[in-house]
Specification:
The complex is a heterodimer of chains A (about 550) and B (about 300).
Chain A lengths: L7 H13 L5 H12 L3 E6 L14 H10 L4 E3 L5 E3 L2 E6 L5 E6 L12 H12 L17 H5 L10 E5 L2 E5 L7 H4 L10 H7 L15 E7 L3 E6 L13 E6 L3 H9 L5 E2 L7 H7 L4 E13 L11 H10 L2 H8 L5 E2 L25 H14 L7 E8 L2 H15 L3 E8 L1 H9 L9 E4 L6 H4 L16 H12 L3 H18 L2 E13 L3 E2 L15 E2 L1
Parallel strand pairs in A: 1-10, 14-15
Antiparallel strand pairs in A: 2-3, 4-5, 5-7, 6-7, 8-9, 9-10, 11-17, 12-16, 12-17, 13-17, 18-19
Chain B lengths: L1 H28 L13 H10 L6 H13 L14 H36 L4 H15 L2 H15 L14 H30 L2 H8 L4 H29 L3 H7 L5 H9 L3 H29 L7
Chain lengths: ~550, ~300
């Protein structure tokens, strides 16, 4: 058994064994040592503790890592991040794409109860119930009447979800939604066990109370220490699950994870300290995984009334002057990819290779000249425009914005930096606060361009510049009503072209996922959604 | 003595009440709320959440609810760790912080007193100079430098101690955090004891004791050191309160489940109740240890009496 697999519990056994070998309990202890050694344990680093283990109260990526080990939805993902059947072994989609009929597999909860269509009927109603106050219920608004029900404007029983019988679940949608099955792999669509919610109320996620239907069961959860899971013997695929016990360890400090990784105390780190990238590349090259991730780092532009920033030509000039390659290579040490578009590369249901921006391949000097011409056309004299670059506290954000400020100087635009503490920053943007240029990031919830392009429809809280364009909204509405995937992809790409032509945002980078993975870990396949369920992993 | 203790404890109540009130309103001045994440919530959903946590009520009403619960010993639910109440979090974290803090305090008091006394007795020798130099280094090196260095050296390079993590039952996990917590305190205490001892050795009552012909170890051990402990004891009061309520830096770097991180995590996440709870706990510890210091004074210094 590899060193990483020794949990501290087993260390305890060893010490007890020495001390008590001659006592009457020696035999029992030796037996327990044997049993414990046969157990395969993996220590996995996570970015932070989950805010809750109630899937309906969660929204972050670090929570999804833990929850996807504990619970399984109608559909799930394989080691490559591809959607595969989960609790539903198959499904039929109606001709018009709005009615999904799921056929449940024979599966059990960790306490032996059967998993039925009623469990999903209950869970989907629960997340949409305003009384649940689920933070991410809005992601399931494609379900018929979802928005009205979650807003308390329609009774809960009007939600388009019903169990026809124990084995059959029917979900009706507002519009044909080609990414709906993808959506069901999101943590918000995970089931909860009704009997334990009823019995324990808001304590149902405690160790000892929590009943799960995924590959693992909750053993214990100590905040800031670790969340321990053990294999669920009732899981339908239990005999294929290689890791018996998972210790999920939160690391506020990524460097701490790296030290414990180097000390072979942790098998996987969910991130790598960006400022130590050179060291990591030199010393941990085999363990380092950097892979394209479904996310975009971009700069929203607002500007006060009457500011030149209200002119699309000015915004375009700013975009042209930014050297994405430099930022990706120098500031982010190659852990991000240069980008000109909001929709990240490699996404499904989109036009081949995504859309292209005409100046992306132009030489930077020519771009700067063109940008200066655009500014001149817009009546902005060199040196006359000063803008503020606003960002939330982080070393990489600061370096990125400092680089952007330098680049803008090349086209005669002065830029100052304004660093704001995270919560204050996001509150300000959500409330529609005034700014010139800000930074924002978006990680896809599901593999579909709609999840990115919907950000800039009018009146979404994500639309920080409060940019409104009726043509854009019309294109997004048209895409929502289009069932033919090719046709839909074309409509969506028209929307993105319009967005980038108007440039209320400047996309500059697409994210990469970064991880350290020990050489004895098998089954860790890089994928666009950065999904690595422990059930697909093994240690050798 | 008992009457004095009771009076002091009663006078702590208004102190804590004022701290609670100031903190409650001060943290609300910070922009944003517990539900402002990088991904903004749908306004509908945000309204549901604020209703669920009473955040839509007027501030004075929230304050009264909080006070009412506090009086009953209920620190409220955590906003950012929704599966736990603040009481749950402290019940899990406080024993860890107290264990590490008290062992570090004990180690620092013993080591610091020993080094300080040795330095004072060998005043201006090379040993004295070495101890003073090391103590100065210990005071000036911040723990966010010492902690990763210790973790790298003993955890990664030598591989003889865990680089981080926690176990209730395996003291190997305690050593590096305790050393990190104790080092700067050893340095401070050594300097305090050295200074006070040098002074005490010149004091009248010590000269008198020598004149009586008492043996050197009695003069130093009973008469000089006892007087020299006074400044150290008054330093130890607030230090104990700080050490026993955990350290953000040490807990973050070694990955320990104490309560030191909750204040910062709570403040950054606008977890109002968690910040309030931390403040209450720290206030109680400070009041308690100041009381203990005053009682210790009476025992150490025959001139002090509380009636």
């Amino acid at each position: 058994m590899p060193k990483t697999a020794i949990s501290d519990h087993q260390g305890d056994y060893k010490k007890m064994k020495k001390r008590d070998l001659l006592t009457a309990s020696a035999l029992a202890l030796v037996l327990s040592v044997a049993a414990a050694s046969a157990e395969t344990v993996m220590n996995r680093g996570n970015d932070t503790d989950p805010a809750s283990l109630d899937p309906h109260q969660t929204q972050t990526v670090s929570e999804s890592r833990v929850l996807n080990d504990l619970l399984e939805g109608l559909a799930t993902v394989d080691a490559d991040g591809k959607v595969i059947p989960g609790m539903a072994e198959s499904w039929d989609i109606s001709e018009d794409g709005t009615v999904y009929t799921f056929h449940m597999r024979d599966a059990k909860w960790s306490n032996g109860d059967p998993v039925t269509a009623n469990d999903f009927d209950y869970s989907l109603h629960r997340i949409m119930d305003p009384a649940t106050a689920a933070g991410y219920a809005s992601i399931l608004f494609p379900i018929k009447n979802g928005e009205a029900v979650a807003g308390g404007n329609m009774p809960l029983d009007q939600l388009g979800v019903r169990a026809i019988d124990d084995k059959t679940l029917e979900i009706t949608l507002e519009n044909p939604t080609p990414y709906f099955i993808q959506l069901l792999t999101h943590q918000s669509a995970l089931p909860v066990h009704k009997a334990s919610v009823d019995e324990f109320g808001n304590q149902f996620t405690r160790a000892g109370n929590m009943v799960t239907n995924g590959a693992y069961m909750l053993d214990s959860f100590t905040p800031n220490d670790k969340l321990v899971m053990v294999k669920n013997p009732n899981y339908y695929n239990a005999d294929k699950v290689a890791i018996d016990r998972v210790n999920w360890i939160p690391f506020d400090d990524i460097s701490a994870c790296m030290r414990r990784f180097q000390a072979s105390e942790v098998s996987i780190c969910s991130d790598v300290p960006g400022e130590q990238m050179d060291y990591v590349k030199a010393n941990l090259a085999d363990a380092l995984h950097v892979s394209p991730y479904l996310g975009t780092f971009y700069l929203p532009i607002k500007g006060a009334e009457g500011s030149p920033l209200k002119d699309a030509r000015v915004r375009k000039a700013l975009s042209m002057a930014i050297d994405r390659d430099f930022i990706a290579e120098q500031v982010w040490a190659g852990t991000m990819l240069p980008s000109y578009t909001l929709v990240p590369p490699g996404i499904s249901n989109y036009v081949d290779g995504g859309i292209t921006v005409d100046y992306a391949d132009t030489d930077l000097f020519d771009r700067e000249d063109e940008a200066k011409e655009l500014l001149e056309e817009a009546g902005v004299a060199p040196g006359s425009l000063t803008i503020e670059l606003r960002y939330n506290t982080s070393e990489n954000n600061k370096n990125t914005m400092a680089a952007v400020a330098d680049m803008l100087k090349n086209i005669g635009v002065n830029a100052t930096l304004n660093e704001v503490e995270g919560t204050t920053y996001f509150n300000y943007l959500r409330e529609g606060g005034q700014f010139d240029v800000a930074r924002a990031g978006w990680i896809g919830d599901y593999d579909d361009p709609q999840n990115f392009l919907m950000l800039y429809t009018s009146d979404t809280p994500f639309n920080y510049p409060r940019w409104k364009n009726p043509d854009y909204d019309a294109l997004m509405a048209k895409a929502a009503a289009t069932t033919d995937l090719t046709e839909r992809a074309n409509v969506l790409s028209d929307a993105e072209k319009l967005l980038l032509d108007q440039q209320p945002i400047i996309p500059i980078l697409s994210y990469s996922s970064r991880a350290l993975v020990a050489s004895n870990v098998e089954g860790y396949h890089d994928n666009l959604l950065n999904d690595h369920l422990t059930q697909w992993l093994s240690l050798n | 003595m008992l009457g004095y203790t009771l009076r002091r404890m009663a006078s702590a109540i208004p102190t804590i009440f004022i701290i609670v009130t100031l903190t409650f309103f001060a943290i609300r001045i910070a922009p944003g709320g517990p539900f402002d994440l990088e991904r903004p919530l749908d306004p509908l959903i945000l309204a549901n959440l604020q209703r669920a946590y009473n955040l839509d009520a007027p501030l004075w009403q929230q304050y009264l609810i909080y006070l009412g619960n506090l009086v009953q010993g209920d620190l409220g639910p955590s906003f950012t760790r929704r599966d736990f109440s603040v009481n749950d979090l402290f019940a899990q974290g406080l024993p860890v912080s107290i264990l590490l803090g008290s062992l570090a305090l004990l180690a620092a008091a013993i080591m610091g007193t020993f080094l300080g006394a040795v330095a004072a007795l060998r005043q201006n020798s090379w040993l004295d100079n070495a101890i003073v130099a090391i103590a100065t280094l210990g005071i000036t090196t911040p723990n966010f430098v010492i902690a990763p260095l210790l973790s790298l050296l003993f955890g990664v390079v030598l591989g003889i101690l865990p680089a981080g993590g926690w176990s209730d039952s395996n003291p190997a996990y305690w050593i590096l955090p305790i050393v990190t917590l104790a080092l700067p305190q050893v340095a401070v205490i050594a300097r305090l004891v050295r200074g006070a001892t040098v002074e005490a050795l010149r004091a009248n009552h010590v000269r008198t004791a020598r004149a009586y012909g008492l043996p050197g170890r009695v003069v130093v051990g009973v008469h000089a050191l006892r007087a020299a402990m006074l400044p150290t004891v008054s330093y130890l009061g607030p230090t104990a309160a700080a050490l026993l309520t955990g350290s953000v830096v040490v807990e973050t770097i070694f990955g320990l489940p104490g309560i030191g991180r909750y204040f910062v995590q709570g403040a950054l996440g606008r977890d109002y109740t968690l910040v309030m709870g931390t403040v209450v706990v720290i206030a109680v510890f400070v009041v308690l240890f100041n009381l203990l210091v005053d009682l210790a004074y009476a025992w150490l210094d025959p001139r002090v009496r509380y009636d």
